Amino acid sequence: MSETHRDRLQDEAVRQTFPASDPPSGNAGQGSRAVPAESMMPDGAAPTNPDAVTLSLRFPESESAKLALEAAVREGPLDRRCASIDLDDDRVTMRLDVPRADAKRMEALMRRHGAMEA
Known about the structure:
Helix content is 36%, strand content 19%. The chain is α+β, with helices and mostly antiparallel strands.
């Protein structure tokens, strides 16, 4: 068997197995996934924690609040759904629902990013 013929056979075999995670659907009415994408996404509700404490902090501008939120999610770690940023006329307020044990640490983290008392 020649080298080019062997390469063509191998290429054809690879083409028939790609993508392994999402085999092609038999009919066009059904998607190619076994499970709808919506069922793999978490719902919009924040996880409930009976020991949660709400921190309300004010920021001088929305950009610093967004950066502080990114830091909270990354370094906290904090679930993004446990935080909200509210923009009023001249005030930017962030609310965080954090476990009681982490409240002081998270407040210190937010203050390093420019947070003030609300």
